[in-house]
Design goal:
Blueprint: E1 2-6, E2 12-17, H1 24-29, E3 36-42, H2 46-59, E4 63-69, H3 78-90, E5 98-103, H4 105-117, E6 123-128, H5 131-137, E7 142-147, E8 150-157, E9 162-166, H6 175-192, H7 194-202, H8 209-226, H9 241-250, H10 257-274, H11 282-293, H12 303-310, E10 316-317, E11 320-328, E12 331-338, H13 339-349
Helix pairs in contact: 3-4, 5-6, 5-8, 6-7, 6-8, 6-10, 6-11, 9-10, 9-12, 10-11, 10-13, 12-13
């Protein structure tokens, strides 16, 4: 087991390794005085891993309450969030109890937001079961649900008490789901670590899962430790996300997050090169990465459609929005655009 410490307002550990699900009870007992745990998962993960996690919790002395909602981004709604809150209330959870999010990014976002707001905040633990959640969304304390107007528009910063990443769970991921995690991994290399990006482009990721997840977490932990509430440096983690989120919304959330981000990175690089924000060759590098990992690079939507969706992005501040561009491979910066600038950026992207 490898461990990374996230130095947020309340520091916590991220444990990464094989066979950790069977140790969840002991690990969680070490960070909370609670002895009642509500496990929140989805319909896809429940039959795969919920029995094992519940047994481990019970063996460690926890009373367990289990709730599963229909899998998919389409469930990431206020109605589903309200149903989780009602379940917690009906289960008579108190402020001294805890919530465990068992699943991918949607589960983590939903369970985390419920934990942040139920009785004004209860402890929660992230147990990611996808490469994307382990490498990105389970770390950093962002929790949210989608609104009809856009992705993640209702949410809270609420740091977990612990993250437990059992890399064995990646074995049940489809190739497409695994690639979603690759997209965020490539993003981390592009914005923060040229050597890591070079490793991804030359080595077999699956043969080095623990070290790859660890490097992802280290990169994100460093950013979160410096800028927990996304006032400055943390914005760099949004590379590819402004137009990526727009793609998700245009698709009715049928395009998965990682795949949308991959296309969003391509679009951002094309626009940044055309507008002089990034050096020539950046787009080619990102296109090569997408080709290597089977990630989409083409956008099926028009500039007008993307612009209309992007104007509702939560990263907008008044009449401007920050977009992330690459200064070079391994280094990124933000560029502030007004709405006409965003329109021009979107048109250049296509």
């Amino acid at each position: 087991m490898q461990t990374v410490t996230v130095s947020a307002s309340a520091p916590y550990s991220v444990h990464i390794g094989s066979g950790l699900l069977e140790k969840t009870g002991r690990l969680i007992a070490g960070v909370t005085n609670s002895r009642t745990c509500a496990v929140i998962t989805d319909s896809q993960v429940e039959p795969l891993y919920a029995p094992q996690v519940c047994r481990a919790l019970q063996a460690a002395g926890f009373t367990v309450r289990l709730y599963a909602f229909p899998a998919g981004e389409q469930s990431k709604t206020l109605a589903s969030y309200g149903a989780i809150l009602e379940f917690l209330a009906e289960s008579r959870l108190t402020r001294s109890d805890c919530v465990a999010a068992l699943g991918g990014g949607v589960v983590g976002d939903m369970a985390g937001f419920a934990a942040a707001t139920y009785q004004r905040g209860v402890d929660y633990i992230q147990i990611p079961t996808t490469f994307l959640a382990a490498s990105d969304s389970s770390v950093g304390g962002k929790t949210a649900v989608d609104l009809p107007s856009g992705k993640n528009l209702a949410g809270a910063f609420w740091q977990p008490k612990l993250v437990i990443c059992d890399t064995d769970t990646f074995a049940t991921l489809s190739g497409e789901l695994f690639a979603d995690g690759v997209a965020e991994t490539v993003k981390h290399g592009l914005i923060a670590d040229r050597a890591f990006f070079r490793f991804l482009m030359t080595e077999d990721i699956r043969s080095s899962m623990e070290s790859v997840v660890r490097r992802n977490v280290e990169i994100k932990a460093a950013v979160v430790g410096e800028d927990e509430k996304e006032h400055g440096r943390r914005k760099l983690l949004n590379f590819g996300h402004t137009l990526g989120h727009a793609i998700e919304k245009c698709s009715g959330y049928t395009v998965a997050h990682g795949r949308a981000v991959a296309t969003g990175m391509v679009l951002a690089c094309r626009a940044a090169e055309k507008m002089g924000f990034s050096p020539a060759g950046t787009l080619h590098t990102v296109l090569t990465a997408c080709q290597r990992f089977g990630l989409p690079a083409e956008c099926p939507y028009t500039a007008a459609e993307l612009y209309a969706s992007a104007t509702g992005d939560k990263k907008r501040s008044g009449g401007s929005i920050d977009v992330v561009v690459l200064e070079e491979i391994g280094k990124a910066r933000t560029v502030r655009l007004d709405m006409e600038g965003l329109r021009a950026f979107t048109e250049a992207a296509l």
